[in-house]
Amino acid sequence: MNDPIKILSFTRTGTKLNQRLCAAFSGTGRECVGYAPAKYVTGGLLPLPEDRRGLIGAGWGRTAWIFIGAAGIAVRYIAPFVKDKFTDSPVLVLDEKGEYVIPILSGHVGGAAALADEVAELLGAAAVHTTATDVQGKFAVDVFAKKNHLLLTDRSLAKEISAAVLEGERIALYIEETDCTVQGSVPDPVVLCAARGEAERYRLRIVIAGRFAGDDGKKEGTLLLRPRNIIAGIGCRKGIGAELLENGLRDVLQANGLKPEQVRMLASIDLKKEEPALLALSGKYQIPFVTYSADELRRIPLVSAGSDFVKRVTGVDNVCERAAVLSCENGELIQKKCVREAMTAALVGCPVVIRF
């Protein structure tokens, strides 16, 4: 969880802790801004604006919030914006002495629980976890998915599985990905199955599979988790429209049974590092965008097809395929260079590592 952090304090003592915690986060390279009443502001903190709910609303869903003070204050300020744990900001409450830190919202998916542990370590405080799966030390599928960069396809079913785990029901897990490494011990009551048919003997099951076909023929009780392991190499005409570029990539992904949310990285040549459509696509889906020089791209010895025109313009005969492969050289080229209107795309699937 690398969202920027904003800390709000309301008393003199709390503001001293605010300053200390902001400095600690900054020392780890995290973006952190502290706010306090104007009369207590010092050491790089900013004054709390009069419209405090406006401050929170402007960053909701994209910022982690830490309140130093009573939990009731935090609840009143965040109440208008709370929607669900999949889109809410992570929210923590600290007492002003820095003895206890409590994640009160978006603990698992948003990362508040992990952030609370980080704050506790920085301050020598005690993290107080209240979520049932945390308290009982049970497997939580939403935490598992987040930790392993897996896309949840059914939030309601994820909740049902977590509830079943708390009741001690055995849950099947089948990994359909062929290039996958499993690390750690599978926790009870999860049962790792060798085939999907074996998994389907259980009432509830988790299937990790990269590609889909229609509804994938999934049975009731099957939670599909999709790895975010796709590198999309892209070449495009200068000034291409953002919608045209996105539609072209969507079409290529769909032809391979993939969704845009499974793309881990966009890659292209450095001539395209300021291309507005690529930057817009990266921003819309929060996908990192990397570029390489022509010399770097030529390190990839073989490509499926080359273009003399592209070589004259860019210095390399095939941008998309080379960029995708260079971004994950131990991956599998699952889509060679293909042409769409004003763009080309290639896809590489990176190896999947599942950690327990």
Can you tell me about this structure?
This protein is of the alpha/beta class and 356 residues long. Helix 9 (242-255) crosses helix 10. It is globular. Strands 3-2-1-4-5-6-7 form a 7-stranded mixed beta sheet, with helices on both faces. The model has no long low-confidence stretch (mean pLDDT 90). Helix 1 (12-27) links the parallel strand 1 (5-9) and strand 2 (32-36). The protein has helices at residues 12-27, 52-59, 71-78, 112-123, 132-135, 141-147, 155-166, 196-199, 242-255, 276-285, 294-297, 308-314, 319-327, and strands at 5-9, 32-36, 46-47, 64-68, 91-94, 100-105, 126-127, 150-152, 171-175, 180-183, 190-193, 205-208, 222-227, 230-236, 263-269, 289-292, 332-340, 343-349, 352-355. The chain is built from 13 helices and 19 strands.
How would you concisely characterize the structure shown here?
The protein has 356 residues and is α/β, with parallel strands linked by helices. The protein has helices at residues 12-27, 52-59, 71-78, 112-123, 132-135, 141-147, 155-166, 196-199, 242-255, 276-285, 294-297, 308-314, 319-327, and strands at residues 5-9, 32-36, 46-47, 64-68, 91-94, 100-105, 126-127, 150-152, 171-175, 180-183, 190-193, 205-208, 222-227, 230-236, 263-269, 289-292, 332-340, 343-349, 352-355. It has a seven-stranded mixed sheet with strand order 3-2-1-4-5-6-7, sandwiched between helices.
